Amino acid sequence: MPPVNHAPQSPFPFELISDHLSVIERDIRAQAELFEPEVRDYFAYVCDTSGKRIRPALAILVANALDNCHHEHHRLGVILELIHLATLIHDDIIDGADTRRDTPTANAKWGNAMSVLLGDCLFAHSMTEATLFDDLVICRKIGKASRDVCTGEIIQTQSRFDLNLTRENYFRIIEMKTGALFAIATELAAVLSGASAETAAAMYDYGMKLGTAYQIYDDCVDLVGKEEAIGKTLGTDLERGKLTLPIINLMESVDEAKRESISAHLLNHGGTNLDALAEIADYKEALNNATQTGHDLLSAARKQLECLPANPSSAALEQITRYLDGLLSDCAG
Amino acid sequence: MPPVNHAPQSPFPFELISDHLSVIERDIRAQAELFEPEVRDYFAYVCDTSGKRIRPALAILVANALDNCHHEHHRLGVILELIHLATLIHDDIIDGADTRRDTPTANAKWGNAMSVLLGDCLFAHSMTEATLFDDLVICRKIGKASRDVCTGEIIQTQSRFDLNLTRENYFRIIEMKTGALFAIATELAAVLSGASAETAAAMYDYGMKLGTAYQIYDDCVDLVGKEEAIGKTLGTDLERGKLTLPIINLMESVDEAKRESISAHLLNHGGTNLDALAEIADYKEALNNATQTGHDLLSAARKQLECLPANPSSAALEQITRYLDGLLSDCAG
């Protein structure tokens, strides 16, 4: 049975870049041949069940906007998606997740040992493929971004049930774990298109801000979203002690006594029960402030697009920010 | 309390290369500064508790033998050791190991989630450091070797309790999981010393054969060695369904009926009881044949050293093979 995708309608103008995305999809599948025969079936499975190819799509849109999209952008898309797949495999081990997008996760199917190794194999393979760029700077940025993703996850894991997690550290975490790969998708696409350093830097900022806003949306929807709408288990962040922006806002907005009550409530693993939380404090404003932070980031991301020529692809990059604005608004109380 | 090292006396002539190894050790510690502050303590702990720096030592000896050892060899040593540390961290998760060299493993100390991420972070960091070589071929070989290590582990995990594991696949597994990193330690050291392609290829073969022989020794000692002699839990391979060369030899040497008995015995998790195994078949010859395979590999490794000039370092590379010959002989029945 093919995986059922319950995700919201994609904001990506697929028609505009469908040829490129088809090539990337074909190239992702073709990577299987580069693994030993024993690894290929595992690889094919995770390719089928995970990943929305957002990072490759962003890279292609930037390259198209700069009117210089070529095969190295396809390679970039493949590598970014493989790194993303590797992190998803390991995330599912860490979260003990049994399903992702309604299909069994790698750890549910083959156990943690195989999933640890499969993620490692994908990581090492991605980095090996990155050396095909013949540009060590690109290779290095991909390595650093991968390290940032892992580091963000480490600090997040370390901060579980740390009710004093600061806003500053929350942003450090999400910039590393989500922003880093978005940022190199758009930055390196510009570099490969021969863009100026200024344009590449603007594209880095666009990707970073978009990725960070996307993570804020993901964190908000985990708190208030409806499970059937997204196809993954929701309300799980608080249960796992992951403090996200709405809760950080809430903790900052209430007095000491309420903060104590909320802390006690969260530590008792009652975090998933929003009704109980609502009895202690009105979380709506905290939630709305979080979605507003997302809107602000998206607005700043749009500013970075000003250096691009006006064309359908640069319009699409703006359209993505508007789409995410809409999703954030849907989360607001 | 510092880790207690029960390992056999090292075969490495440390005096010959102690200055270089000190630099590498200092440089490994200095890597901590390149991680985010939250990661540094974890990193320092795994540096303290794991790794015998065999791969860096081999690289330095090859460079010295070629009379051209410089700071890039130190970088190579650091990178190889970091990759090795990353694989040890993940191996301990997979094996559910609580101690390594008498100190708690990362997973015993911080749990599997943190250990998965810490290994990933070390992997990604190693690959990032590899881009500092300004030579994409070196970078690519390091990536491929890392992928080979993971692939070898995947095939080994997949082959657990596969009583039909072939000799051919056993060698594929150990060449990838252990040989690959040894082989690039010696090959890339030669490349960085400006050696000819022939010498680099000979050094690759030396490292591959030495690493493979080392793994055969490790597998033999797991079967028959004494726990107090090595400082890690022994007799665990069979318990985990890992068929190694002595058992593959044994299965091939007996008739169908005995093969059935041995299989039944192993599948009943009685593998750790050598006495019970001895009642079914005489495993001494199978063990001796395995150690002989190790001796043959070491003899072939020595042949590869003929292209090196005669000097204390090339003598030391030969001495290492003789030392391993001695360890293998100690295992023989």
Automatic annotation (TrEMBL), chains A, B:
GO terms for biological process: isoprenoid biosynthetic process. Keywords: Magnesium, Metal-binding, Transferase. One of its GO terms (molecular function) is metal ion binding. The keyword rRNA-binding does not apply. Belongs to the FPP/GGPP synthase family. SUPFAM superfamilies: Terpenoid synthases. This is Polyprenyl synthetase family protein. It comes from the Bacteria. The lineage of its organism: Bacteria, Pseudomonadati, Verrucomicrobiota, Verrucomicrobiia, Verrucomicrobiales. Pfam families: polyprenyl_synt (PF00348). Its cofactor is Mg(2+).
